[in-house]
Amino acid sequence: MPQPNVMSSFWRGVRDGLPFLLVVGPFALLFGVIATEAGLNVFETLSFSVVVIAGAAQFTALQLLSENTPVVVVLASALAVNLRMAMYSASITPHLGALPLWKRMITAYFLVDQTYAAAALNYEKHPNQTLAQKFAYFMGVVLPICPPWYVFTLVGAWLGNAVPEGLGIDFVLPLAFIAMLGPSLRTGAHRVAATVGGVAALVFAFLPYNLGLIAGALLGMMAGAEFERRMLPQEGKS
Fold first, then answer.
1. Is the per-residue pLDDT at 185 higher than 90?
2. Does Membrane count among this protein's keywords (predicted)?
């Protein structure tokens, strides 16, 4: 019967997801502290993490909200930061697209950087897994990543309430972005996108409501995609 194999896949997913806890824990803790520093209460901070469950988008939205940016711009900026999720969805659909609707909804909600990276690698290494095994593995990866994100956010919010208002920890936010960005620059396209996006954001920093961030994100993605398009023919010749 397939049940033992399904459970084996689940626990393999848990094992593969555990190392991500070393990253998820500190960043969720940091978000909780910064969110309360920005004026959110504990319930609002936790709700933010539960509803959005996307670290980079949460930090971006929080920064803009703290500057009284219009909600439309906040949402557009968070969307620009999270456009990569559409690519994750397209990549994972051949593996999990045949699931029932309610399972696809669960997968979509928990499809974040870490769960996608682990699942995509596992599906490539074990192409003969059944649909049930693939879903079990995905949920196994989710267990040590997503629930701890909520827990550490809550702890960070409680700790943030203990930070004196005059202390100020605004400098931590750009450091968090740098720490998240650095390890992700694995290819030439990534580095081109980051460079063009960063320069463009500075050039258009004069735009109101931090629209320079959206301009930088769009130009960075366009530059990265064009770089990759130009490199593909060369790779095919080699």
1. no
2. yes
